[in-house]
């Protein structure tokens, strides 16, 4: 009888805490000693309402279990009766809820959207507590790839980009992880060459790369390249990041030595010394004419005016101008001279035989007698005279009135 009274006292405390009737709690205790609704008829309620009640009951049961374990009335003395307060609602009700919803759901995503808030309410955790993994699935539809800068704090950030193309840059040199730029000159080449095919090297080529070895995407927009070629200065101002390539041509430079230097300066005082070199520009190569004075033929024109044909042989491919000098003789007596530079110079353009016809005012209106010329010439580049050939003699006759 004492045991029955003690059991009723326990049922009364549990009933007050859970809101159940004392009789129902007592029936559970008499059934298997566990408060688990095993002896209570369960009505078909709205499924979501059952889940909410399950969550509330779990919390309440956990609180009661703690209270019962600490109650000296229920658990005091040597003759204490162990009262184990449990619930299987978190398994039983939830299993029923899932089974019911799965039958009604059109697809797994609708099921997830309905259950997620309730599962979290019951478990205080994640969906994995019920063995439900990746219930939302994945979208297998193809999406268009948009390349661009995907780093949000970059100056050229593209919010529409789906894939990063490595183009991000920061005006202040920042960007993501801390990066320290390390600029260096690479692939240097400074040399003379024959760019326009003249046959000698009087053209200059400058090639060099200015590279940030750490590729920090630092935007270099506050400086200039300074290229010195002898006394000639060229300034190149460009905005760039990570790398700049210099490829410069200087054509037909006068013969001589040139000191070439490339540097980079910023307007705030930074400076990078670049490559430098001495380069010799060739002058046009000397080509000495190799000429032979083959003949000089004298003619009378209009009866009393002289004209001479000079026959000259060139034995190489050199080119150049030549000047002539003529001395006039009458009946073997010297009369006058047409000196170098008086008559127009004549051009030699490679190997071969050349015929030049020349005349002078002093050879006009000549008197009777025999006339001839002593001929000579010289190349203008060397000034070495080739002398001397006398022409044939011609006779001038003056008709009497």
Structure description:
- The protein has 401 residues and is an alpha+beta fold.
- The protein has three domains: 129 residues, no CATH class; 99 residues, Immunoglobulin-like (Sandwich), CATH 2.60.40; 106 residues, Immunoglobulin-like (Sandwich), CATH 2.60.40.10.
- It is built from five helices and 20 strands.
- Strands 14, 15, 16, 18, 19 and 20 form a six-stranded antiparallel sheet that branches. The protein has a four-stranded antiparallel sheet with strand order 7-6-10-11, with no helix packed on it.
- Strand 18 and strand 19 form a beta hairpin.
- Helix 3 runs antiparallel to helix 4.
- The longest helix is centred in the N-terminal third of the chain and has 24 residues.
- The protein is rod-shaped.
- The chain starts with a helix and ends in a 5-residue tail after the last strand.
- 19% of the residues are buried.
- About 14% of the residues have low confidence.
């Amino acid at each position: 009888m004492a045991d029955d009274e003690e059991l009723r006292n326990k049922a009364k405390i549990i009933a007050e805490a859970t809101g159940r009737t004392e009789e129902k709690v007592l029936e559970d205790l008499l059934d298997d000693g566990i408060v688990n609704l095993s002896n209570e008829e369960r009505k078909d309620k709205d499924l979501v309402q059952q889940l909410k009640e399950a969550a509330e009951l779990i919390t309440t049961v956990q609180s009661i279990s703690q209270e019962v374990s600490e109650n000296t009335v229920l658990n005091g003395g040597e003759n204490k009766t162990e009262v184990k307060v449990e619930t299987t609602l978190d398994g039983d009700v939830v299993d029923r809820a899932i089974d019911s919803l799965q039958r009604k759901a059109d697809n797994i995503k609708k099921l997830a959207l309905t259950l997620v808030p309730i599962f979290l309410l019951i478990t205080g955790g994640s969906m994995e507590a019920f063995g439900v993994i990746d219930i939302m699935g994945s979208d297998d539809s193809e999406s268009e790839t948009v390349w661009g800068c995907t780093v949000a704090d970059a100056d050229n950030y593209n919010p529409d980009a789906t894939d990063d193309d490595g183009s991000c840059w920061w005006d202040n040199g920042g960007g993501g992880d801390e990066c320290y730029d390390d600029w260096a000159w690479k692939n240097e080449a400074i040399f003379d060459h024959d760019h326009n095919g003249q046959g000698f090297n009087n053209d200059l080529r400058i090639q060099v790369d200015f590279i940030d070895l750490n590729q920090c995407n630092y935007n270099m927009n506050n400086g200039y390249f300074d290229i010195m070629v002898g006394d000639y200065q060229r300034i190149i101002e460009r905005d760039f990041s990570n790398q700049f390539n210099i490829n410069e041509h200087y054509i037909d430079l006068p013969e001589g030595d040139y000191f070439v230097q490339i540097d980079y300066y910023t307007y705030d005082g930074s400076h990078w010394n670049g490559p430098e070199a001495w380069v010799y520009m060739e002058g046009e190569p000397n080509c000495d004419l190799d000429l032979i004075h083959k003949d000089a033929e004298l003619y009378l024109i209009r009866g009393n005016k002289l004209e001479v044909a000079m026959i000259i042989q060139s034995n190489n491919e050199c080119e150049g101008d030549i000047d002539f000098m003529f001395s006039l003789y009458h009946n073997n007596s010297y009369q006058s001279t047409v000196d170098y530079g008086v008559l127009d110079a004549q051009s030699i353009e490679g190997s071969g035989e050349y015929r030049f016809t020349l005349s002078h005012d002093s050879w006009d209106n000549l008197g009777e007698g025999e006339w001839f010329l002593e001929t000579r010439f010289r190349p203008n580049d060397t000034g070495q005279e080739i002398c001397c050939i006398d022409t044939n003699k011609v006779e001038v006759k003056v008709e009497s009135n």
